[in-house]
Design brief:
Number of strands: 0
Order of helices and strands: HHHHHH
Helix content: 40-55%
CATH architecture of the largest domain: 3-Layer(aba) Sandwich
Structural class: mainly alpha
Largest sheet: none
CATH superfamily of the largest domain: Periplasmic binding protein-like II
């Protein structure tokens, strides 16, 4: 939304001119970069950290790079959790949420899945930049809610 739909169309048109290669999943994108099938790929950071944890940093050729705040790709997403209105299992749902937001739960996500902890005092064994070091994009994620318009634009430029 930084440059509007016309800016997105222009970027997508230029992107298509580079003949991008499509991959089905983040892990496949990372493998493609690691095997030098493509020069770069956009993934969620935790896929790289997971691969490094499994293979060792010296065995992974792909390197991780966090985009600058002025780049619309520097999005910081937070996973959410909620309780379905009218559920018969509200007590169990509250217990599950309490665990997810506990130090134990957040430590699991930080150390085992390389997610950023969302509560104070929980750290990670991964060498992640802190959230305060990352300056997320100025793009308002709440304005990115039109899947139909996005799909139409991708079809218009020939990327579907």
């Amino acid at each position: 939304m930084v440059k509007g739909e016309d800016g997105a169309r222009d970027w997508l048109t230029k992107f298509k001119a580079n003949e991008p290669r499509a991959y089905d999943k983040n892990g496949a994108v990372l493998d493609g970069v690691d095997k030098a099938e493509v020069a770069f790929g956009l993934i969620n950071h935790y896929y790289w950290y997971e691969k490094v944890a499994e293979a060792g940093v010296d065995k992974v050729k792909a390197k991780i790079h966090f985009l600058n705040a002025d780049d619309p790709g520097a999005l910081i997403n937070v996973a959410g959790v909620g309780i379905v209105k009218g559920t018969d299992a509200k007590d169990a749902a509250v217990k599950a949420i309490d665990y997810l937001l506990s130090s134990e739960g957040q430590t699991y996500f930080a150390d085992e899945t390389f997610e950023y902890p969302v509560i104070a005092g929980v750290t990670t064994k991964a060498d992640l930049p802190t959230l305060s070091e990352l300056k997320g994009s100025s793009v308002d994620l709440n304005r990115l809610d039109s899947l139909d318009a996005t799909l139409k634009l991708l079809e218009e430029v020939g990327l579907t």
